[in-house]
């Protein structure tokens, strides 16, 4: 879980203090953006697919109650047990109840941002359940007692030497060996034991299909498959926005997901679960936790189209230079910066301002969520909620007042131009704009307005 | 009851209705040589694709590709020695399984088999060979979803190459949890 | 054709030479251009900070000031984008008459030559400002699968001797972002540095763009760090004021 009190600019400043490391973080993630571009370039129908994905999700959200009921009905026919959770607490209680009834004391989990959102791991651990995250990146951050810093690449903020040291301590790997292949295979051997001994497996859900009552889970590692194929109990947790109407619609989404997420034509495994495995149980927990409220907000419900690919993070120039830990909400980057403020604008207001409005995220989003527009709309909620710093609010107010009086507005501009050049250095270096590495603008002697009055004003 | 509360709130908050697109209307990419596309791609994804030579059997092709072998399970055999629990497949070295169709755009193979009760085999085996009829190679996932069929037990998966991860510094490593290597045999 | 020159606040105070060049360029095509003295702020800062009511008041004021002009032309892409995309629907008449300078030259005047021939034998790296790029289609964004086009490339084909290049990460943001540059000064400077380094890595002598605020921001980084490249607004280049 993350600390709600994080303010993005402060945390980003701390992250950027190690400029070389910040550069590495930026390059590592930009590399993924480039791979995504290369995949896009191979598909002439790319923009058509994005439009279709947008339309399918928009349609689904506008009939969501019907599709959820159809999904539930069909899933039950298939022998799947369907649970509904209004919030994080109910979700956690349902999962724990299923484990407790069966005496399960070890749970293998594959990646699920929903369970991060709900704080499931600490909830279960406090009740004596051993929880093993099995996605390699998630296992790494779990062993470090950290939250994921990216929704698709949870450990992207770490260098391999740090992971080598962690595995030496936790898994007994050779001292000083930081070779990614060696470390990955050490984790494989260790986690196999957990897969084979766990009493239950929990997975997220990428898509739930109303037509078939089936679930689709996409991974590259195969951890969701092992976790759901071995233990007798498979629990799948999904936000209620994961629905799509028909199986054929996967022909659109599976073409976009991995290309957008990691620049790969598909995930290794795109697994479809329609029924419990022979001799086993399959339970699905459908979670609201604020989503049905967002659905009712005209400016924000489009964020429920999200398929959690993380492409918006990879392209975001601010995310790449500040890392996931600079954001107060569990989901960072552009999509997190609308979902977090939707949940609590006061706690997460700084996220809405961690954006230059460059709008690159709008263009990479495979379901065409107008992310940059949503961030600016979240700022309007912040303004209304009084969540802007007082000084900033006053400055914006003053700008608006001055702008009603052209002569005063010109005088204010002139004052600025005349004062800045004579500021004592101590003050010039401490303006809100000042930073080492960036000089204040040069101040011309004359404004254009003054020039015009002197040179062009008709008598 | 949470279910009814949630559904009621969704009903109250329904956005303006919009239509589903016809996903079959636009033309999508067609590959001149689907096998070449498939084979090139899977080569970068921890796998290998081949077409059986005249008179060659699947087993011969697998043996030629992976000469060193531990326990081999071929689920295409009529008398499959089924496991008693899903855990019993843990020591399998090579699994040979039927794939119903393959997809050129992403080197994926659809696996879903009635005869195999415990799908853990696909993911526990150290190496996975998937055997696909030559005529069952389609261009895109749209075509694939028009043709997929689910086995009685309701599980199916598109598998593309080997299990992999790039979670450590974006270095691509084959063999995260599932198969360390994949082979697709077109017969 | 009655043309009102819209000079964004920061251009008026900090880059008057860009507005002068814009005016002279338009006049060079024989147009009569007026500068309505009542103009102030278009409302973008209010809008971007959540003060929607304040932004709408500014937009209404903008529409009044520029009422009666056939075209409203500006040397700033960002403020033009704001008027075009974020003002109340009641102002759609105003929206459709607002043009950034290069848009106006290409779409309204359809120019095929410059008023005075310009010879500029230098390598320039194009800075594709975000709002022009993604809100007004000034070029094909690198994120999209669309045919390549670039307004700046097209207009620079009218200049003799110039050689045009793009930086690596062709259209990444420079980190100015309006009030972002003071809300998030550390990220803003880091982005500015990276962007300037990218332009400089091409070996170009100039960063050429159509949005003065991005150029001002990068100029601050260049001056503070002594980088071997200079920002140059397209209007200055097109009027032979490259100053090389």
TrEMBL record, chain A:
One of its GO terms (biological process) is lactate metabolic process. Gene3D superfamilies: Alpha-helical ferredoxin, NagB/RpiA/CoA transferase-like. It comes from the Bacteria. One of its GO terms (molecular function) is metal ion binding. InterPro entries: 4Fe4S_Fe-S-bd, 4Fe4S_Fe_S_CS, FTHF_cligase-like_sf, Helical_ferredxn, LUD_dom, LutB/LldF, NagB/RpiA_transferase-like. Keywords: 4Fe-4S, Electron transport, Iron, Iron-sulfur, Metal-binding, Repeat, Transport. Transmembrane segments: none annotated. Residues 296-326 form the 4Fe-4S ferredoxin-type domain. PANTHER family: LACTATE UTILIZATION PROTEIN B. This is Lactate utilization protein. It comes from Crenobacter intestini.
UniProtKB/TrEMBL annotation, chain B:
Pfam families: LUD_dom (PF02589). It comes from the Bacteria. Residues 81-185 form the LUD domain. This is LUD domain-containing protein. InterPro entries: FTHF_cligase-like_sf (IPR024185), LUD_dom (IPR003741), NagB/RpiA_transferase-like (IPR037171). It comes from Crenobacter intestini. Gene3D superfamilies: NagB/RpiA/CoA transferase-like.
TrEMBL record, chain C:
InterPro entries: Cys_rich_dom (IPR004017). Pfam families: CCG (PF02754). Residues 4-83, 124-218 form the Cysteine-rich domain. GO terms for cellular component: cytosol. One of its GO terms (molecular function) is oxidoreductase activity. Signal peptide: none annotated. Transmembrane segments: none annotated. This is (Fe-S)-binding protein. The lineage of its organism: Bacteria, Pseudomonadati, Pseudomonadota, Betaproteobacteria, Neisseriales.
């Amino acid at each position: 879980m993350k600390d709600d009190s994080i303010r993005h600019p402060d945390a980003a400043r701390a992250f950027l203090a190690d400029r070389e490391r910040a550069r590495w973080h930026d390059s590592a993630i930009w590399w993924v953006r480039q791979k995504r571009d290369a995949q896009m370039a191979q598909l002439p129908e790319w923009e058509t697919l994005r439009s279709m994905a947008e339309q399918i999700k928009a349609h689904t959200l506008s009939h969501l109650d019907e599709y959820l009921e159809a999904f539930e009905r069909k899933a039950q026919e298939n022998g799947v047990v369907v649970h509904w959770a209004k919030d994080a607490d109910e979700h956690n209680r349902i999962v724990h109840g299923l484990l407790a009834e069966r005496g399960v004391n070890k749970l293998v989990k594959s990646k699920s941002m929903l369970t991060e959102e709900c704080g499931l791991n600490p909830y279960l651990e406090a009740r004596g359940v051993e929880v093993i995250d099995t996605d390699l990146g998630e296992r790494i951050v779990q062993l470090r007692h950290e939250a994921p810093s990216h929704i698709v690449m949870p450990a992207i903020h770490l260098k391999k030497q740090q992971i080598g040291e962690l595995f030496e301590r936790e898994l007994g790997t050779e001292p000083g060996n930081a070779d990614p292949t060696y470390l990955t295979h050490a984790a494989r051997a260790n986690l196999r034991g957990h897969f084979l001994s766990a009493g239950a497996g929990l997975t997220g859900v990428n898509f739930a299909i109303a037509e078939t009552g089936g679930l689709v889970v996409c991974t590259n590692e195969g951890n969701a498959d092992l976790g759901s194929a071995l233990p007798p109990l498979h629990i799948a947790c999904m936000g209620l926005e994961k629905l799509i109407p028909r199986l054929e619609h996967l022909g659109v989404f599976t073409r976009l997901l991995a290309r957008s997420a990691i620049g790969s034509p598909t995930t290794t495994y795109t697994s479809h679960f329609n029924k419990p495995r022979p001799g086993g149980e399959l339970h699905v927990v459908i979670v609201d936790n604020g989503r049905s409220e967002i659905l009712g907000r005209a400016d924000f419900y489009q964020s429920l189209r999200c398929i959690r690919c993380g492409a918006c993070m990879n392209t975001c120039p601010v995310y790449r230079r500040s890392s996931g830990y600079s954001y107060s909400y569990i989901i960072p980057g552009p999509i997190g910066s609308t979902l977090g403020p939707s949940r609590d604008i006061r706690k997460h207001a700084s996220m809405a301002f961690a954006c230059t409005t460059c709008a690159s995220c709008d263009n990479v989003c495979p379901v065409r969520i107008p992310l940059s527009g949503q961030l600016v709309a979240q700022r309007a909620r912040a303004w209304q909620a009084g969540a802007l710093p007082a000084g900033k609010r006053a400055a914006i107010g003053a700008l608006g007042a001055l702008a009603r009086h052209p002569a005063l507005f010109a005088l204010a501009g002139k004052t600025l131009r005349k004062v800045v050049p004579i500021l004592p250095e101590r003050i010039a270096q401490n303006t809100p704009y000042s930073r080492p590495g960036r000089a204040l603008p040069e101040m011309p002697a004359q404004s254009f307005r003054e020039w015009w009055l002197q040179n062009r004003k008709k008598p | 009851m949470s279910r009814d509360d949630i559904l009621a709130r969704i009903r109250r908050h329904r956005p303006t209705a919009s239509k589903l697109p016809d996903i079959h209307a636009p033309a999508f990419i067609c590959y001149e040589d689907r096998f070449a596309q498939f084979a090139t791609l899977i080569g970068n994804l921890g796998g290998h694709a081949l077409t059986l030579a005249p008179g060659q059997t699947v087993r011969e092709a697998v043996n030629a590709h992976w000469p060193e072998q531990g326990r081999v399970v071929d689920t295409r055999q009529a008398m499959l020695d089924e496991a008693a629990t899903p855990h019993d497949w843990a020591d399998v070295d090579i699994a040979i399984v039927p794939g119903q169709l393959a997809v050129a755009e992403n080197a994926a193979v659809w696996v879903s088999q009635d005869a195999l009760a415990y799908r853990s085999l696909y993911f526990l085996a150290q190496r996975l060979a998937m055997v696909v009829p030559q005529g069952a190679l389609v261009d895109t996932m749209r075509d694939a979803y028009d043709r997929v069929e689910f086995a009685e037990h309701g599980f199916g998966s598109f598998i593309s190459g080997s299990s992999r991860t790039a979670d450590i510094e974006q270095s691509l490593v084959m063999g995260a949890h599932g198969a360390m290597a994949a082979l697709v045999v077109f017969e | 054709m009655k043309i009102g020159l819209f000079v964004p606040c920061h251009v008026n105070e900090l880059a008057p030479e860009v507005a002068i060049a814009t005016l002279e360029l338009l006049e060079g095509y024989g147009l009569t251009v007026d500068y309505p003295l009542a103009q102030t702020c278009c409302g973008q800062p209010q809008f971007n900070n959540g003060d929607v009511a304040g932004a709408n008041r500014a937009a209404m004021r903008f529409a009044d000031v520029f009422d009666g002009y056939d075209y409203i032309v500006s040397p700033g892409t960002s403020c033009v984008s704001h008027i075009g995309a974020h003002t109340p629907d009641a102002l759609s008449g105003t929206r459709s008459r607002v043009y950034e300078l290069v848009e106006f030259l290409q779409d309204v005047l359809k120019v095929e030559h410059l008023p005075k021939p310009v010879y500029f034998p230098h390598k320039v790296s194009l800075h594709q400002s975000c709002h022009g790029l993604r809100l007004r289609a000034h070029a094909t964004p690198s994120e999209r699968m669309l045919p390549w086009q670039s307004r700046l490339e097209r207009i620079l084909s009218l200049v003799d001797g110039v050689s045009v290049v793009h930086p690596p990460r062709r259209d990444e943001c420079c980190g100015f972002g309006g009030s972002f540059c003071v809300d998030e000064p550390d990220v803003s400077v880091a982005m500015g540095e990276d962007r300037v380094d990218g332009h400089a890595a091409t070996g170009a002598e100039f960063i050429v763009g159509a949005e003065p605020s991005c150029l001002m921001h990068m100029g601050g980084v260049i001056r503070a760090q002594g980088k071997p490249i200079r920002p140059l607004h397209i209007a200055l280049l097109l009027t032979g004021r490259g100053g090389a």
